[in-house]
Design brief:
The structure is a homodimer. Chain A is about 40% helix and about 15% strand. The first copy, chain A, folds into three domains: about 45 residues, lambda repressor-like DNA-binding domains (434 Repressor (Amino-terminal Domain)); about 130 residues, Rossmann fold; about 130 residues, Rossmann fold, CATH 3.40.50.2300. Chain A has 13 helices and twelve strands. The first copy, chain A, is an alpha/beta fold and about 350 residues long. In chain A, the strands form three sheets. Chain A has a six-stranded parallel beta sheet with strand order 2-1-3-4-5-11, sandwiched between helices. Chains A, B: InterPro entries: HTH_LacI, LacI/GalR-like_sensor, Lambda_DNA-bd_dom_sf, Peripla_BP_I. Chains A, B: This is LacI family transcriptional regulator.
DNA sequence: GTGAAAGCGCTAACAC
DNA sequence: GTGTTAGCGCTTTCAC
């Protein structure tokens, strides 16, 4: 086999392969696309020609003709540093990458820059990709929804705006997760359970507070111990301090996310109290703050990586024209019990 | 004017704009591409038609005709989790994204998966992108070098294999950085300076050891205190332990990276010694381990973000056919003095 | 300055 | 099964 793969200046075209193999371009195209209706013999000849010439199909030409790009975009309307530092985002992208690895699709990562929203829209409408995944904490970014009619897309998280009802999204049942976390505390015998809630204008913040309320109500407990924060450790510390300063007894806390829970740790300690001996704490997210906290934080695991995988899977089905895809897909949530919670003394 | 912009299933084409504006397709194309040779009047008419129709050029068709994709790939032959967890990788990608934000280029992120090396090669040769950035710690991945003839590419880090001499890369002067770090220790009055070297089959490991040797030799100091590790904290601890067990006096240590330096911290303490009182330690990389270590680690900052920006800039010049781009571009290195180093007592 | 026409490299009917 | 013939939507000479 003359395997002379000399680096030619211009890549060989399908036409060159056809000539070399003595068949038509259509046949070469069929072979390249694994069409079943080609003689094994011809397939062999064509493949030999392909190898000999080192032919690689031009994806752009292919895309133009087939109207498929075999690429999807992951749009994260956040700065690059945020995207890489926030484990939620990075895990989702990881999940997407994982799912795509088993396919022929490639991934384009679009992050927000100054006013790149317009740039992103043009990108989406310019036929660069077959579909898009929108990942954001900000509800407002469901504004991309309108483009859903042009190109299939799947969102991470439930849309808050009503116009987006018809959009596709993958989410976790935050209400249920918060309920699980709170019930865990209740089962341990705690009765004075506070919550450090997040911003309620975000679906997650809103629903987690609702879940806590639901669990408290179901157990007939007082649900007045509420403080709010914006999901950062500093906010968690401040919220915990505020809770403690009320002077009312508190034997457990449910925090809307791990970062605030870890912030609460320091406030609890500054008050001379121990975790979990005096106060049990449960977080939400199971991010890296949770596992490395001391003591390790009991939390609700939402596996953003699985979420990313699910999003990619759904998008691909949408691209394939699957009409049976449900608008909402809920991911399972799991309580991870660690050492920050203990039975009431 | 019959301005019925009803949401058509298929996007308006350049042809539709031409018809709407009463000009030829060529003229519309010229307007879209800001050609100077079009009357202001005509430009206005065409732009009006574009707005009215909500026309967005199809990038794929454009790419096929112009033979430019306006996209570059960032290839990181590592698993997605590694890419996102290792600050070196994520910072480079951030830098690239930053640079690209000011251009019309988009970024495709390709991470390694099982046997995706072949997939990546096809991607590169398939005309998906105008150029590629290869970011890896593994020298072997300079194997992509051969493709450099097909599509422009820029590597992060100097190639170790000789065949790659003609490739483009951005790197830091590791020898100089190690020398700076070591000289800092020497200037503080230390004389028994050990080094925890990395793997010498990696350019960084090799050169940092060489820099330490050079500085020690220049100062006429003994350069026998050498231990090796594979860049992890555990390796750093083991290496430090080995150094200490020699029983020879040591008053300072230069570690080939921050992670090993932090590992050395624990070994030093287990031996009942204090940092920097008994032993001064300098790291390399200025990653997040360095800043959060206690005491904060004096280290050499290599700013991978700037490196990413530089790589993107160089690649774009290469794509533009700039013949004056040098093969090697060295990024400045800076010593960040923190509290892990102190004058000899 | 503007238009006509010829592709870019491939896929997709439609014949044979 | 295989070849023929049109395009996909745009850029780009080349005339005018």
């Amino acid at each position: 086999m003359t395997d002379r793969t000399i680096a030619k200046p211009s890549a060989p075209t399908l036409e060159a392969v056809a000539a070399h193999a003595g068949v038509s371009r259509a046949t070469v195209s069929r072979v390249v696309n694994n069409s079943p209706k080609v003689t094994d013999e011809v397939v062999a000849i064509v493949n030999a020609a392909i190898d000999e010439l080192g032919y690689v199909p031009n994806r752009v030409a292919r895309s133009l003709a087939s109207r498929k790009t075999q690429a999807i975009a992951v749009i994260v309307p956040e700065t690059a540093s945020k995207v890489f530092d926030d484990p939620f985002f990075s895990s989702i992208v990881q999940g997407v990458a994982l799912h795509l690895a088993g396919t022929e699709y490639t991934l384009s990562l679009l992050m927000e820059t100054e006013n790149s929203s317009a740039k992103t829209r043009r990108y989406l409408r310019g036929g660069n990709v077959d579909g898009a995944l929108i990942v954001s904490h900000h509800v407002s970014d469901h504004s991309y929804t309108q483009l859903g009619a042009t190109v299939p897309m799947v969102f991470a998280g439930r849309p808050l705006i009503p116009e987006a009802v018809a959009s596709y999204y993958v989410d976790v049942d935050n209400v249920e997760g918060a309920r699980m976390a709170t019930n865990h505390l209740i089962e341990l015998g705690h009765t004075r359970i506070a919550t450090i809630a997040g911003r309620t204008d975000m679906p997650g913040g809103h629903d987690r507070l609702a879940g806590w309320r639901a669990a408290m109500a179901a157990a007939g407990l007082d649900d007045s111990l509420v403080a709010h924060g914006d999901f950062s450790p500093a906010d968690g510390a401040a919220a915990m301090r505020a809770l403690l300063e009320r002077g009312e007894p508190i034997d457990a806390v449910f925090s809307a996310n791990d970062q605030m829970a870890v912030g609460a740790y320091s406030a609890v300690r500054s008050a001379g109290l121990r975790i979990p001996d005096d106060i049990s704490i449960v977080g939400f997210d199971n991010d890296r703050y949770a596992a490395t906290a001391s003591p390790p934080l009991t939390t609700v695991d939402q596996s953003p990586e699985q979420m990313g995988e699910a999003m990619a899977g759904i998008l691909l089905r949408l691209i394939d024209g699957d009409e049976t895809v449900p608008n909402a897909t809920m991911m399972p949530l799991e309580l991870v019990v660690r050492e920050s919670t203990a039975p009431r003394r």
